[in-house]
């Protein structure tokens, strides 16, 4: 077959070129079955649009910016990987940036994307108030922005996350039902979803009449998941043991902390789960191969990426003033898997 274009796809599928064009651009005017037929045919025959001509016509590029705190985090890496798979058949190109939880780096990334005339931006903010004014200006006057994961931010737009409070409640409750009452919570400092996870943790303790010990809510301040925070955690848990207040269970509220705590406890010659049971939020694919295998709360990164792109393309195609759209929050279900680290 020669060069595949909109006209050849239309002829092969016996539909109009206009319908093919709308399907390739994910227009809401096209039925789902028709869109899937067009996308499948386009992918099978390696269709690539004339992006230069499209950009001249629409005044926008086929670039989508993705701004995340860390590329080294299993959660964010998994999200970006799925985004690549989702945009490929739609002929968009991703421009990923990491901010390392730094508002200044986030601002630089947003300004760069703005100068590249991106079609839209998907972002997990550095913190709850980071660059609110800039993001609002971009969203209203330049291109749409979608928030994911860290959704407690002032920007009024579509937001995609999970039931952080509920998931942490269930993890804490499971440890309580296994007889553990001295439960610590490891949190990332100044991270947007921390407040909800602390609330779920505290609610579980309250509902089982277990006093909340503030010293058991441990904030780890790090700018990169690869940063060596092990010594700080080791010092904290060594202190608990010396004072006779060693927690008998730990809930890890971030990817990094959920994994690192296993090594920290091992270095202190504490046995998991006999001495300290561990469960944590993480999307790592090696949970089964850790020592011991780690009980995890896995966030639905693939579903989040698909929905984020779907909502972004909807806003890109919309003619409505983005200041007047009735936006929604989407809270997706996570998957909890219990392994040896909580097998008490």
TrEMBL record:
State if Transcription is listed as a keyword: yes
Ranges where the HTH lacI-type domain occurs: 4-58
Look up keyword Transcription regulation and say if it applies: yes
Signal peptide span = none
A Pfam family in this protein?
Answer: Peripla_BP_3
Q: Give the source's domain of life in one word.
A: Bacteria
- Extract the PANTHER family matched here: HTH-TYPE TRANSCRIPTIONAL REGULATOR GALS (PTHR30146:SF109), LACI-RELATED TRANSCRIPTIONAL REPRESSOR (PTHR30146)
- Designated name of the protein: LacI family transcriptional regulator
